[in-house]
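Quick review question:
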């Protein structure tokens, strides 16, 4: 039945990846899916031609919606590192049209990609998983936010004296400006201002935005080194959690410069922004902090999002509390 009447589908992603995937699906009619168009942005189309079947390339929302109606599309396949605008806007619209969204892993084979997850498996040999159009957990999102507000509010009250002492010592030793503010990238690629205690004064705004790490710099005072080792410099981020910029648990937010760099060099890095960023996460409790592998962090962060549950958040918070005072650096 699948061979006789394959379901029409749109392939969303960079042309260089989408065309070979579409070609592979067309070579396997038994998979039950027949690509009828490629969805990408105009800039990607100008810079990458790609190789594969000459399917219609759709670069606007209007063209995509027309293709859905004309072809009776019920399946959307997302491949590669699609832009945040496509993920948060167009995919949500396609889901509203009744399309089922799938994410295909078209890169390095991911053995066990969908083990134990509902709707997982493969399509013409490509590991696949159901994709939530809002980029976050399908259920329990409200519970996660309630946990964030209640716990961060309680921690702010309990840690109030510690915050005051740290701020006073920093003010006496290093002068004004005890709180460090820096732009970071959060959920759906949206920027926000992250708060930390200032442990280092960069030479310029450019250095602050592009220098990777100063954790081992000798010019920091002993007190600042202590704040870094114990992660006490991260406590002001509890206010980011209360405001909704961050969550207690999630992928760590990074500066715009490095988000752009890592998105180009590490497949799946952009997918970390499907969920609100966090103070701690699955990568951090496995020792991936500071100067550690970005590839490993990316893998752990995406595994956390794919398998998210409120119970997992609680377990991560408990393990973080146990590791809080260990001198591992921030």
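Suggested answer, residue by residue:
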């Amino acid at each position: 039945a699948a061979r006789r009447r394959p379901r029409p589908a749109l392939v969303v992603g960079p042309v260089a990846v989408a065309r070979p995937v579409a070609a592979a699906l067309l070579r396997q009619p038994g998979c039950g899916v027949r690509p009828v168009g490629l969805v990408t942005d105009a800039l990607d189309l100008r810079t990458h031609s790609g190789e594969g079947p000459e399917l219609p390339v759709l670069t606007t929302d209007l063209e995509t919606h027309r293709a859905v109606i004309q072809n009776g599309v019920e399946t959307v396949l997302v491949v590669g590192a699609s832009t945040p605008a496509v993920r948060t806007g167009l995919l949500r619209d396609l889901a509203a049209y009744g399309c089922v969204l799938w994410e295909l892993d078209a890169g390095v084979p991911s053995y066990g990609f969908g083990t134990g997850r509902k709707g997982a498996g493969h399509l013409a040999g490509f590991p696949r998983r159901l994709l939530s159009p809002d980029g976050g957990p399908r259920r329990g999102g409200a519970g996660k936010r309630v946990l964030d507000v209640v716990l961060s509010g309680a921690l702010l009250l309990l840690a109030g004296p510690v915050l005051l002492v740290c701020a006073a010592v920093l003010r006496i030793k290093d002068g004004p400006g005890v709180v460090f503010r820096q732009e970071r990238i959060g959920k759906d690629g949206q920027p926000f201002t992250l708060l930390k205690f200032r442990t280092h004064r960069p030479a310029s705004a450019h250095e602050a935005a592009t220098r990777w790490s100063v954790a081992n710099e000798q010019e920091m005072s002993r007190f600042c080194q202590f704040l870094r080792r114990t992660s006490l410099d991260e406590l002001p981020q509890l206010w980011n959690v209360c405001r909704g910029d961050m969550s207690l648990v999630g992928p760590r937010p990074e500066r715009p410069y490095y988000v752009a760099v890592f998105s180009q060099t590490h497949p799946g890095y952009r997918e970390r922004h499907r969920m609100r960023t966090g103070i701690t996460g699955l990568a951090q409790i496995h020792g991936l902090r500071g100067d550690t592998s970005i590839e490993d962090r990316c893998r752990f962060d995406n595994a956390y999002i794919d398998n998210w549950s409120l119970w997992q958040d609680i377990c991560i918070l408990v393990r973080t509390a146990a590791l809080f005072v260990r001198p591992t650096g921030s």
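Why it works: Residues 141-323 form one domain. Residues 141-158 form the longest helix (18 residues).
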